[in-house]
Structure formats: C-alpha cells, structure tokens
Amino acid sequence: MTGNRRLLIVDDDEDIREVAQVTLEVSTCWEIVTAASGEGGIRTAVATPPDAILLDVMMPDLDGPSTLRHLRSHHETAGVPVIFLTAKVQATDRKRLEGLPISGVIAKPFDPMTLAGEIAAILGWDRAEGGSRV
C-alpha cells in the first residue's frame, strides 16, 4: 500500500494492537504498522517516520509520555502527530495528557466501529485518502 498514509500503533497489549490494526486496515486506506513497546515504537518511527502515531500511555519500561519525549527529541519524528490511547479517562488525567505536545486522546477500550473516524477527525485525514502528512 505504498503512497498511503502510514499510522504506527504502539501498544504493549497484543490484543489492542491486533484489533486496532485489523479495524483500521479494513476501514481505511492507511498503511498500519505496529510496535509492542515504547522502545520498539521509537526505533520503527525513526527508521521510517509515519504520518501519525497512536501511542498507549501505560506501558512497562517506557510509558507513553516518556516515549513521546524520545520521539520529540529525534529530528525524524519531532513533528509527527501523536494521539494517546489510554484507559485513564478521568478529567484530571485527560487534562494532564492534553497538556503534552500531542494531537489528541482516544479512550480505551475504544469502539472498533468508530476508531478510524476518531483518528481521522483528530488528524484532519480522510479515511480513503493516501498521500503525505497534512
């Protein structure tokens, strides 16, 4: 699927990664790439920068905010839009996360039927669109 928008999903939960990947591959024209850890996500993103990253907040070893700091420190990924994926949806948690340099927050568990639409709305993407970063 060359030429399509490339979305990197970084989540330590294999089931979440798989559901998100399958859902987005079926409902969009985006290329979906996954990583199982913050470290893996950084390596993948720096090697081939995606158009956006869906990043889990709570991961062992390197959590989402720490992963985000590393991503922002690399020239290749400094400007890549990041959407946090989190089970912490209380107002205080959400406000803290939205204060970081991210594009948005999506709550877990997410609805597979609306995930693509939520991502598209946050990033200003068309689900059928290819091409490069907005």
Detailed description of the structure:
38% of the residues lie in helices and 18% in strands. It has one domain: Rossmann fold. The model has no long low-confidence stretch (mean pLDDT 90). With 134 residues, it is an alpha/beta fold. The protein has helices at residues 14-27, 38-47, 64-73, 91-98, 115-123; strands at 6-10, 31-35, 52-56, 82-86, 104-107. β1 (6-10), α1 (14-27) and β2 form a beta-alpha-beta unit. Strands 2-1-3-4-5 form a five-stranded parallel sheet, with helices on both faces. α2 packs parallel to α3.
Question: Shape, please?
Answer: globular
CATH architecture name? 3-Layer(aba) Sandwich
**Pattern of helices and strands:** EHEHEHEHEH
**Strand order within the widest beta sheet:** 2-1-3-4-5
What's the end-to-end separation, in Å?
18 Å
